[in-house]
Amino acid sequence: MKKTVPKAVVFDLGKVLLDFDFGIFARRCAPYSRMESTAFLEVVNQSPLLHRYESGLMTDQQFYESVVALTGFTGTMETFAEWFGAIFTPIAEMVELHQLLVARGIPTFVFSNTNGLAIRSVRKDFPFYRTFTGEILSYEIQSMKPAPPIYEALEALTGLRGEELLYLDDRSENVEAGGQRGWTAWIHSDPTVTVPRVLSLWDSV
Ligand SMILES: [Mg+2]
Description:
Elements: E1 8-11, E2 18-20, H1 22-29, H2 37-44, H3 48-54, H4 60-71, H5 77-84, E3 88-90, H6 92-103, E4 108-112, H7 116-125, E5 134-137, H8 138-141, H9 148-158, E6 165-169, H10 172-180, E7 184-187, H11 191-200
Parallel strand pairs: 1-4, 1-6, 4-5, 6-7
Antiparallel strand pairs: 2-3
The structure holds magnesium ion.
C-alpha cells in the first residue's frame, strides 16, 4: 500500500497537546468580581471578546481592561495574566508523540487559535513547546482557523503544501479546511488512536 510520508507535522495545541479549562480561571477570578463563576466564565470562554483577542484585534492590556469592565474584576494585570495562563495541563501521550517526532528529526509546527497571555505561559511552563520547528498563532497572523489566511501562513512558513503536511486538530471545521487544501488532516480525539496512526506513517521508512 502506498503511504505518503509527510515532511512536517502540524499540531493544534488546545485539546491536542494541552488540555485547558477556563473554569479554573473563572472560579479564581469570580470572588474578586461582581459575578458568579458561571457568568464570569461566559465572558471569557469561547466568547466574542476572546475571539477578538485571539484574532489579534486587541492587546493583552485591552483584553484585561475589557474583562475588568464587564465583570468588575479588581485584580491587577499581573494577577490576571498569571491566572489566565494557569489553565493548561499537558496530554502526556501526545506530548510524547511530539517528542518522538522531534527525536526523529521530523519538523513540527504549532498551529493554534490562541493569544499572547496563553502562549507566554505555555512557553514558560512546558519545555516541549520550545522544541517545535516553528509556530503559527492566530493573534499574530490576525486570522483564525478555519479561515484560509492562517492556513496560507502555515504553508508560507514551512514551504510545504498538500500531502507534505500532516495536520492534527480536535475541531472538525479546522480539519476540513486543511483537507480542502490537500493537507493530510486528521481529527484527533483519542491518543490511543492518533499516536499509532501517526507513527505508522514512518514505519517502513
Ligand atoms: Mg484544539
